[in-house]
Amino acid sequence: MSAQPATATGSLLAVRDLTIDLPGKDGPVRIVDGVDLAVDSGQVLGIAGESGSGKTMTALALLGLLPTGATTRGEAAFQGKDLLRLSTKQWRQTRGDEIGVIFQDPMTALHPMLTIERQLTEHMRRHLDLSRHDARDRAIELLRQVQLPDPVGSLRSYPHQFSGGMRQRIAIAVALACDPQLLIADEPTTALDVTVQAGVLRLLKELCERIGLAVIVVTHDLGVMSTVADHLSVFYAGRIVESGPTNELLRAPRHPYTRGLLDSLPHPERPNEPLVPIEGAPATPANRPSGCALHPRCAWAEPSCSQQVPALLPVGNGRLNACPVDPFAEGER
Amino acid sequence: MSVLELRDLSVTYRRKHLPDITAVAGVNLTVERGEIVGLVGESGCGKSTLGRAASGLLPPSGGAVLFEGKPVTPLGRAPRPKRERRIQMVFQDPNSSLNGRRKVGDQIADGLELATGMPSHARRARVGELLEQVGLEPRVASRFPHEFSGGQRQRICIARALSADPSVIIADEPISALDASAQAQIANLLRELAKELDVGLVFISHDLAIVRHIADRVAVMYLGKVAEIGDTEAVWDEPLHPYSDALIGAVLHADGTGEMPEALPGDVPDPADPPTGCRFQTRCPMVMDRCREEEPILAVTHRGDERAVACWLHHE
Where are the beta strands (DSSP E) in B112-266? Predict the structure, then answer.
């Protein structure tokens, strides 16, 4: 079951039943458990969750960057390939070429000792087989696309000469250099100031619409999701608990976890009330409660919640919910 | 008397072969007991430097830090004067501010011994009380930091700060490294403790939405100076400084409307070479000729709400 059951088969990327195990002290630990996702060209899919929810491991699996010893099950269909079954050699042609990536901290993603030109053109010349001159032209075009002031002059500069927001724009240009169809952005604005965050998010959204890029944004920040994501999947303890169109999901969350996350954020109209946190600490994969992993922290839990893992079921309007109690079936927040 | 008072404080970092950076360039700020003062601004605005100078971790290059009316001794080789141990700090990352190889109870007990000279037989019970105060069970005292989640570790850091019976706590981004649900828990805890124990709290954060929720007053910093300071609710409802306005306008709301806030164009200028006139003039949408020449001083407006703003739009 994907975020969009109707179009899942024709999606650019269709992930089915993705399961990831990592080796642990006492045998394998299930980090991600039966996740379905789909994203189309020109669309932004948001993956939200706290640390330990499996959101980053899901992204790494789609990039062939899982740690050594990890085993996967399921399927990730992308351009006639299964991303979970690619060899190292095949990944070398896919990653960077068809799937681009940006990480949280642009300072560590860029090489501090190489010029922007070198970092932008190196893999372009290799993957696209361009001459030095053509690669340079394309680099300037890319920097223009990410709205860097003075693209020509920037080529000879080094990463430290730019501010955080500009560095993230350069990292996006590097990710786009080989014309990928899919961009995976892991916490793309978490390391940035609020004032520049909006600019980077707007850029991602524009690229998505203008060049038909599909984007997967992974972040814990629901404010970011609200502004960029068309569809949202909320992860808890390695499973999707709720998914659907972002605007509906945030306006009227159905799952107690999504609801709890939203309630723990400052409310724009109720500044004087204390925040309402979800009690307790997030479940960790090594210590996942039985049944619905949220049940020890959930105010609406019933005895059956600790026994059976709830299925993610359609609840109308393209939405899916994995809560059989469903206490918020009616009404908005 | 304010528990903490910064008087025209400036802090300069000296660099070899490079111009000095004045990270804090003349700040006046008071914190009362039981009051929560939020300090917000972009990275590089000097808010962390200010916090470190206020707690004596950095020496001021000008002005003074007064704790309960007397100057704070900058940290040196000598032990801190006992009375200044009642200034405590909570840092951003609880993983690096706790010793991973010592039991958390022992780390909290250190504070009791150093600051209050409590005999060892009494410390154990007090450690248990402190743990309860921050929402943990006393029996966890014998555990090690890695056995806790990020939010719980930050609770331990807060308990350790409380062990010194502080009258002011400086918390530098205390929730930014935590999970969403833990952020709300720690923010609530800090507010409750400040009110209940009558401790002054300086809450340094880039997250304006949280600051609005927990701070009584808020100071907006830009490039080493305070641009605006006032009652949190008043500043939020009607920011007077264009920079406060831009910061508040950039906050994202998880309301599903998909509204994209305006980005503030440009970057924070190099603090080693601040612009002439108003420090914000290079990015200000309302800039006037006067702003490029004369630097506005932070002064109370005539609005009667004790709000001070450093902007020519609001002063003659």
Answer: 168-172, 200-204, 217-222, 225-231
